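Quick note —
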Amino acid sequence: MGGQFGAIANREVLQMTGTTYTLTVVNNSSHFADFCVYQRSPDLGVRDALSLAWLAVPLWPTTVEVFTWQIDYSFVWSQTGVLKPGVRFGASQAWPADPGDTNANQVLFDYQQGAFTFQPGAAAGTPQRGGLYVRELADIPADTASVGIGMSGSGTFAVQAQPNENLVFTPHPTYWVAAGTFEQGVALDVEEISNTAQVPFDSTFAMTAVLDARNNWTVRAS
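Predicted structure written out below.
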């Protein structure tokens, strides 16, 4: 599961910290549904990591929800048992993280006196700007908890925690919206989500996504 410790490109994830992003979601379909915003990151760097239902809200027809967030990262963990699609990841701890600061982009994940916790400490190797590093210590019991990263207070990606692993998350997220049955924090199989659309924040920080009566998405700048 461990990522590789090497030079990491400092992409937009470092440039847009502090900017408020807005996504207005409109349910113009004929049915009630849960509307979910989730992230994908093809170059995340952690094998077997799952996307989480990051933001989710139920909406009746003709109703609107406005999601807002900032790119402020955190390390998160949850005592999930075996992590797989459909399992809920409810963050038990959120530890501030900053991929642009080598003093704040690394953490230890430990198990002491029967409880999991993050601890300050150095990751293995030489952490680079652009990555988020988790060093899982030897006492972590296998297949009991999951660890990952979050944004704006909620988990975005998680992976099964294992002893003596070194994880390097290199987040360059793309944003997606979907309608269906979702619960915030649930692990997703993104390849199985059918009614979804990408929301590209290209030269804008405000987007609108409308689900129409034929269950098609229209995504545009607000």
